[in-house]
Model the fold of this input.
Amino acid sequence: MTAKLSEKTIDALLDQLSANDEFRAQFQRNPREATRSLQTGDAAVDSLSDAPLQSLAPKEGFRHARGIVRKQLMESMSPFVPITLDIPR
Done:
């Protein structure tokens, strides 16, 4: 059973899968090691498979998924975590 990845890891993963060809190739060869290379400190990464993937969605698919995941994360956290803005003085 795969543990839940952290928000930080999901963000980094979707960013790389939507833009970085080298990372995409590495992820397709070994998802666990590729995700570990993001250095997010997420213990759940160890539960990912190290088996090669047959195929990967196109970059645009990941860009689209990233927006959906971010929206869901923000909506699920909003009653509990206030949104703050750092405004330079």
Remarks:
- The chain has one domain: 7-77.
- The chain has four helices and no strands.
- The mean pLDDT is 83.
